[in-house]
Amino acid sequence: MAFIRKNVKPNLVASSNVSDDSSSAETFTVAQLLELAKRKGVETSPLDVQKLLSVLGVELLSVPMKDEISGVLSRLENKDGWVVKVNALHHPNRQRFTIAHEIGHYCRHRWQQKEFQDLNFFRNGESNPMEAEANRFASELLMPEPTFKEKVRLFAGSIEAIAQYFKVSTLAVRVRAKNLGMKGHGLE
Ligand SMILES: [Zn+2]
Fold it and tell me: For this UniProt entry, which segments traverse the membrane (predicted)?
């Protein structure tokens, strides 16, 4: 008699129809990444994005950049590695979203480009499918559905309190609520 390990179905699947068609064998979903984080002892609620990045073997540099640049993910020259540069002048919560967004590019798109330069996500992201996917990835990574719903209940729907808990902007909370089909997020 042997235990048969059932393939545990993740309860949180990246809601991505975008890049599932190509090289998906090598791409990480949000659920897989959160499982990895837990295995490696990375705090997931709220997520320690910096530690997760280091678990992935990606370097992080915090550097002052022009205000419109949030961050950059790029392949290191001469080395088989990647680096995330985040705009040190931005609010820490925004930097967290930037890092999560770059993790999204790293997990889903790094075979397609060797550099990702990111301007203001919410304004410019939607037009490009890759950017939209990285935004969605970041949003799901920082605010996993079960925890998000739990905190919405706990904080009686206070967007400020939820944002404070997850250490994200109130806009990020509104977008997450909207994407989960919740009401009262105040977005069109
Ligand atoms: Zn991007």
Answer: none
Q: Look at 60-64, 81-85, 184-188 and tell me which has the smallest mean pLDDT.
A: 184-188
Q: Closest by alpha carbon to 56, among 78, 72, 34, 86?
A: 34
CA 9 to ligand 1 centroid distance, Å? 28
Domain boundaries, the chain: 26-143
Q: What is the pLDDT of residues 139-172, one digit of tens each?
A: 999 999 999 999 999 999 899 999 999 999 999 9
Distance 176 CA to ligand 1 centre (A): 17
Distance (Å) from CA 1 to ligand 1 centroid:
49
Ligand 1: distance of its center to the CA of 73 in Å? 8
Strand order in the sheet with 115-118: 59-63, 82-87, 71-75, 115-118
Distance in Å, CA 59 to ligand 1 centroid:
17
State the distance from the centre of ligand 1 to the C-alpha of 151, rounded, in angstroms.
27
Torsions phi, psi for 161 (to 5 deg): -65, -40
Q: Tell me the CATH architecture of domain 26-143.
A: Orthogonal Bundle (1.10)
